[in-house]
Amino acid sequence: MGTTQLETVPEPKYWHLKTVLSEALDSEFSVGEILPNERDLAARFGVARATLRQALEQLELEGRLQRRRGVGTTVAPPRMGVAVGSEEHVWPGAADDAWQPAGCATAPPPNAVAGLLGTARDEQVHTVRRSRVSQGQPVAAELLYVPRASLPALPEPPFPDAPSGAARARAVLRELQHLGLEGQDRAVELGSARVEDARELDRLPGAPVLVVTTRFFAEGRTAAVSVATYRADTCRLTFGDSGGVEIHHGTEDEVS
User: Fold this and answer.
1) Rounded to two decimals, what is the model's pTM?
2) Are 76 and 64 within 8 A, CB to CB?
3) CA 9 to CA 180: how far, in whole Å?
4) 230-248, pLDDT tens digit by residue?
5) Cis peptide preceding 158, ω within 30 of 0
6) Domain that holds residue 203
7) Which whole-number Å values give the CA distances from 227 to 58, 101, 145, 157, in the listed order?
8) Is residue 149 part of a domain?
């Protein structure tokens, strides 16, 4: 076979620097140690600060480094395995669920989520906020979107027995358990932390995250959609035997 155009492209400077920095992390630094500032690192390796930033960003994406508010760039611990539910017939909020409800609101969902739910763009749905903590640190934040039509027995807001906050979220989750879950599908993609996600996950806005979008099916339609944002720097998502990996070619609307 002939040489492709990509094979003739030289390795970017930042990529070579990333390899050098990775070797330095292994031999000179320990987990949690703060790296020297960008000026000193750039001078040590004889590169421009822009090149250094690209290499550091790549190492953060790969989970080797963490940027922490008020601290700086530190050496990250090994990624922790976080199980992503493989049970095909368990609703969010089940007894063994690792997520903790934080609040609930009723508002129109993002356009992409409305498309997945099959609701009108201005139709209000229940939006449950949940969080997940592992080994004492926040690892994920979730928005669970549930159309009112999925929970016909649930009183209209304001709920008399659960006016707001976590109590209202638990009321929505309890009502979900009454539906017969027929199945679910899941997609995983790389994204950047929005301001709200960054605040909840103790990350900087724009930090790399893994976005897991799950559709839950009941009564022949999509009954709920979960958009869970995991820290890409610390999490290694694991799937059960029933979980599969699908490769899609082309572009779709982004869930935001």
Assistant:
1) 0.70
2) yes
3) 55
4) 988 777 787 765 444 443 4
5) yes
6) 80-239
7) 25, 14, 8, 23
8) yes
